[in-house]
């Protein structure tokens, strides 16, 4: 239905002469659509209504009396024409509004004027990744350093020629005499040195010594009541001194560096801060604490800067052994805090890293205490590197738990949500590792979710992720997969690492599969539980011989592990390996895949000339395992798969062969895991093999235990416990109860319970006294009761000797039973006394040297 206004306009145009002519022309040439779509009539109706005319108007009697009929007729015609003109203009205005609305809608429905490439260019800047944007091409540091060295050497050569002529001219002047040998330092080695900077220092020292001699002579001849200040004599410029210092530091010439600083001070120059800082860097990187403190005391005016305080503390960290807590560095750090000049935040990060590197429970606890103390005293808001370090520490806590995912997620939320800091790839790897090591399926799934978030939530306009998965990321995910026995994920991760698709990134191409990755993969195979069990399914032939075999072995079916038929089945699978998308369904298939992987490692590393079955094309033919170094931990993980899924005979033969084949020495973990496998041998023939195998391993273990060290480190008490407990269990299970009993007595004689009564000394930094100012953390996250003691000697508890106790009860050996009960209670009581003494122990006191060192920064 047409709008009313359009109908009226059409009617008026048809009744007018112009409208009639238009209609005639339109009938000849066709009508042209001048109005928009019908649904746009609302725009015309939205305008103001037209003026209302009174068509029934009649002049008054006065008007009628004054006007003639012709005049009255002309007035009516004129008024009728004005009314028609006003109506026509109003209708035209409405039609124009409709045309404008239709044009606006048509422009809105037009196709976009930007192409896909133009839109992509626009969004590249909008979605640019911060990490990618900061990757500015930099010059090669080695090239820059070499260019700077060449420039410094050219400056030194020019200075040497200048000073050489000055010294030769001064030697002919009789008024300037050289000082005595006792007053100046001997520089014979400097003069005869082939190094140009040493000859320059020798000439400069000669000139400065002559000037000082002349000054002393003039002062002795002048009146003592009048002071004669001397202006500094410029032997070398500041730029020339800086060039010499850089060359000395590059050559690691400590003596020459000290001589440069000495010459500048004797010449009356204010030593620039850059030169002092460079000299402190040389001392700090080498751990020369005495040298760096002498520079601060002799040449530093004012308080040390942040960089200088950092170098001072770093020198103490470097000078301390990695296995020991850097006590002196902590004392200097707290000394700076007490003087209201705390060290920068990266100093705290370096010190906390050093504490975590001690691999001791006390060091880890002190690191957490220092982190909380720093937020209270110095820096309330940590940066991303420090957050990353603390989240990574949650994966290896100082307590007996595997990890602390709750604490790690709290720190992650504080960093990313509360403070809105952009995480780095290292931060993602840290939180993934902390969740993966928990051993809980919930947190392991959270680790994989974070890995997906890492790749998907930080993409640019082209879809490229800011964080490419590195080897550390894959190792962290494998940590979670092996703890829950998720072999499907582990196989997928290994396939991703060795696939050719990872060659797209140069960084990923450099990071191939190494022994850590394969160690995690082998551990996943060891923790995997196949859905199919060979002992649960019996063939018809086996059903016929099963009663006779059960009677011969005098064992029940639920304790049978393997049979000759099963061992042959395992060996047959080793000859025909196959990798499919379905995980192995039986233990034999697990051994088959692991053996194939191990053969490929030996082939790629050159330890083996050819594999046994080259027809397997499931693995790539390229040397994807060339970066795998055959280490003891790799062979131990490979053996652990056979301990779980293979027979004990096969494991024993492999134990004897692989270490000699790869020329790798056995470790304490090798012996302990072999003994613990023998300790869970089941009845029948396997226990006879276990006794023979355990005796062989125990002979090798005793040699290592007598030495008491492994890789220059003392054997851990818990490792010694595990070895002895496993051997006692093997003896008790195989019927050698008397040998097991005498073994317990020998252990108690070598590690008596009395050794447990005395705890380790309590350091001063672990003091629990409440103070507001001191040389230790004021706010702690750990108490002394929560920190385990790493130096507890080996001991035996009743749970460790329970099987032996049962065997003695069956034999009704009352005296032996009484001794077992006594020794277990003795160890338990000694351990309780050690704990009580550790809680009551007072911390050590600071000696005089340490107190003087604390006040060293204040002298600067």
UniProtKB/TrEMBL annotation:
Coiled-coil spans in chain: none
Any one GO molecular function term: mRNA binding
Gene3D superfamilies (alphabetical): Tetratricopeptide repeat domain (1.25.40.10)
Keywords: Signal
Region (Disordered): 543-585
Ion transport as UniProt keyword: no
Signal sequence bounds: 1-21
Positions with biased composition (Polar residues): 548-579
Protein's name in the database: Pentatricopeptide repeat-containing protein 5, mitochondrial
Organism of derivation: Hypsizygus marmoreus
């Amino acid at each position: 239905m047409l709008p009313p206004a359009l109908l009226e306009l059409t009617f008026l145009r048809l009744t007018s002469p112009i409208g009639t002519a238009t209609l005639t022309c339109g009938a000849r040439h066709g009508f042209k659509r001048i109005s928009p779509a019908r649904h746009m009539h609302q725009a015309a109706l939205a305008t103001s209504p037209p003026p209302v005319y009174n068509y029934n108007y009649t002049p008054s009697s006065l008007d009628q009396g004054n006007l003639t009929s012709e005049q009255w007729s002309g007035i009516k015609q004129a008024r009728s024409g004005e009314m028609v003109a006003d109506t026509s203009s109003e209708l035209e205005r409405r039609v124009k509004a409709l045309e404008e609305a239709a044009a606006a809608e048509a422009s809105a429905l037009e196709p976009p004027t930007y192409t896909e490439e133009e839109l992509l260019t626009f969004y590249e800047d909008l979605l640019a990744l911060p990490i990618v944007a900061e990757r500015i091409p930099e010059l090669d540091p080695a090239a820059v350093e070499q260019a700077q060295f060449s420039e410094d050497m050219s400056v030194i050569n020019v200075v040497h020629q200048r000073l050489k002529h000055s010294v030769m001219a001064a030697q002919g002047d009789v008024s300037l005499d050289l000082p005595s040998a006792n007053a100046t330092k001997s520089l014979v080695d400097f003069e005869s040195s082939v190094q140009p900077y040493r000859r320059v220092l020798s000439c400069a020292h000669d000139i400065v010594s002559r000037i000082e001699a002349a000054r002393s002579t003039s002062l002795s001849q002048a009146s003592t009541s009048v002071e004669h200040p001397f202006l500094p004599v410029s032997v070398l410029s500041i730029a020339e001194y800086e060039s010499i210092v850089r060359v000395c530091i590059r050559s690691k010439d400590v003596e020459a560096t000290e001589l440069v600083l000495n010459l500048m001070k004797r010449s009356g120059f204010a030593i620039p801060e850059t030169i002092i800082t460079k000299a402190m860097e040389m001392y700090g990187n080498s751990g020369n604490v005495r040298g760096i403190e002498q520079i601060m005391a002799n040449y530093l005016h004012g308080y040390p800067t942040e960089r200088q305080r950092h170098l001072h503390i770093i020198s103490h960290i470097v000078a301390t052994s990695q296995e020991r807590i850097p006590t002196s560095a902590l004392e200097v750090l707290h000394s700076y805090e007490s003087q209201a000049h705390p060290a920068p935040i990266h100093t705290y990060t370096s010190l906390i890293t050093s504490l975590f590197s001690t691999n001791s429970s006390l060091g880890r606890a002190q690191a957490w205490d220092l982190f909380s103390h720093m937020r209270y005293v110095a820096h309330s808001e940590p940066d991303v590197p420090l957050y990353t370090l603390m989240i990574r520490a949650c994966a290896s806590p100082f307590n007996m738990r595997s990890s602390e995912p709750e604490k790690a997620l709290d720190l992650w939320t504080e960093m990313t949500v509360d403070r809105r800091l952009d995480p780095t790839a290292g931060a993602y790897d840290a939180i993934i590792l902390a969740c993966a090591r928990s051993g809980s399926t919930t947190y392991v799934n959270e680790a994989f979710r974070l890995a997906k978030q890492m790749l998907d939530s930080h993409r640019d306009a082209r879809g490229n992720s800011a964080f490419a998965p590195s080897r550390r990321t894959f190792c962290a995910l494998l940590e979670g997969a092996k703890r829950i026995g998720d072999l499907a994920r582990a196989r997928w991760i290994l396939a991703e690492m060795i696939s050719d698709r990872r060659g797209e990134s140069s960084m990923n191409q450099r990071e191939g599969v190494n022994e850590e990755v394969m160690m995690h993969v082998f551990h996943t195979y060891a923790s995997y539980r196949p859905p199919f069990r060979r002992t649960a399914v019996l063939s018809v032939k086996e059903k016929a011989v099963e009663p006779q075999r059960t009677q011969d072995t005098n064992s029940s079916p639920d304790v049978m592990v393997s049979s000759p038929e099963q061992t042959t089945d395992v060996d047959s699978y080793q000859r025909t390996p196959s990798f499919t998308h379905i995980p192995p369904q039986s233990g034999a298939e697990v051994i088959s895949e692991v053996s194939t992987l191990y053969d490929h490692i030996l082939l790629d590393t050159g330890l083996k000339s050819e594999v046994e079955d080259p027809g397997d094309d499931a693995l790539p033919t390229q040397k994807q395992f060339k970066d795998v170094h055959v280490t003891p931990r790799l062979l131990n993980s490979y053996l652990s798969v056979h301990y779980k899924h293979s027979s004990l005979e096969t494991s024993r033969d492999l134990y004897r062969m692989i270490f000699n084949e790869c020329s790798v020495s056995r470790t304490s973990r090798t012996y302990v895991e072999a003994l613990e496998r023998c300790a869970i041998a089941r009845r029948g023939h396997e226990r006879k093999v276990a006794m023979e195998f355990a005796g062989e391993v125990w002979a090798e273990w005793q040699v290592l235990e007598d030495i008491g060290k492994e890789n220059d480190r003392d054997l851990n008490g818990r490792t010694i416990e595990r070895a002895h407990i496993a051997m006692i269990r093997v003896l008790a299970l195989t019927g050698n109860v008397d040998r097991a009993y005498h073994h317990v007595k020998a252990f108690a004689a070598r590690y008596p319970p009395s050794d447990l009564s005395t705890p380790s000394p309590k350091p001063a930094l672990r003091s629990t006294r409440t103070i507001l100012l001191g040389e230790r953390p004021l706010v702690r996250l750990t108490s002394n009761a929560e920190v385990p003691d790493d130096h507890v000697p080996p001991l035996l508890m009743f749970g460790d000797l329970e099987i032996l106790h049962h065997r003695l009860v069956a034999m009704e050996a009352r005296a032996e039973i009484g001794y077992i009960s006594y020794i277990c209670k003795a160890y338990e009581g000694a351990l309780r006394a050690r704990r009580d003494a550790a809680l009551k122990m007072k911390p050590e006191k600071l000696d005089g040297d340490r107190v003087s060192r604390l006040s060293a920064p204040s002298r600067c």
